[in-house]
Design a protein that fits this description.
Blueprint lengths: L9 H11 L3 H8 L5 H7 L1 H16 L5 H10 L3 H22 L4 H13 L3 E5 L3 E4 L1 E4 L3 E4 L3 E4 L3 E6 H8 L3 E2 L1 H5 L26 E6 L3 E10 L3 E4 L6 E4 L3 E6 L6
Antiparallel strand pairs: 1-2, 1-6, 3-4, 4-5, 6-11, 7-9, 8-9, 8-12, 9-10, 10-11
Length: 256
Amino acid sequence: RGPPRPPPTPQQIAELAKKERVPTRIAKGDLEGKMKCRIWKKLHAEEARRFDSAWTLVETNKGLDLADAFGVVQSGLSVQDFLARKVRVKRKEEVKQARASVEGKVIDDFIDAQVKAHAELAFVLAERTFFDAVTGVQPVAFDLEKEGPTAKLNIVVVTRKTTWDRLLTALERDPKLAQKPAVVSRQPSKRPVSDPRQFLPHVGQTVSFLLRNGIKLTQPLIGVGPYDVLLGTTGEELFVPLHAMVSWSAGESPAP
């Protein structure tokens, strides 16, 4: 039988796959003495045609690998649209993982304390502010005593009314955003700020935020949750959702 043949190198596999216009796994099997490429193409004619089209895309689109090229063929999308979709899917998964990696206890404790105290809170939205008390919390809304269910996505800041009254006199605003607040994308991956992990190293430090209705806040960072941060000092906390942020910086005023 002779000595066993050495395993094929990645370069050999890639060269044969390109030459025969087949998947790399089939080329690898051929080099290992298993099914020949020509036999696979006869047995799987339809898939072989798709891989032939994929190899054509690889040859005509610089930087496109075979896996993505085959995905383009299967999806029926253009190369540009397929790669854009791939980026979106990857970004969504990254945001999901980022949220799952951050505990929300500090945020939950703050909200729970306001519910128990039946505290009068200022709810700052994009274009108006009202005062109410939280009676319960849903996944995507706060249940308020007077306003009823209020979508969290609409909220820019929540704090005690007394804190807001003191803060309001010295509050800075970006005039353009104050006149026309930034829209919140329904897709978290498309928002300016969606990864809470970037704030973790700055807990205890002063941070600055520009919010979507133009409000500028420069406050100590108390804590970070999966979807929100808590600013200020004990008894003077400000709850700020990530979706309300346009930009931020550590210790400096953020630019729009």
